[in-house]
Specification:
Blueprint (H helix, E strand, L loop, with lengths): L8 H8 L3 H14 L12 H35 L1
Amino acid sequence: MLTEGGSPASQIAMRLGVKRTLLYRWRDQLNSHGPEAFKGPGKPKAGALSELSRLRHALAAVTEERDILKKAAAYFARDLK
């Protein structure tokens, strides 16, 4: 409402029941951080949650592979000496 410029900030603040300076602070946060500015403590959306789960599973698999390769490299390096 503030960026559209239809009403002065003081009227918008009165309608919302907040201080005018708070509106300006919200506007500045939105301009500096974009859509991530007001990310709350709520749960992620279903698509984001499944993506997060998939990435965690992939990370666990890659970490396990890395550990196995480290052990194999140490085993074969011991035989070369």
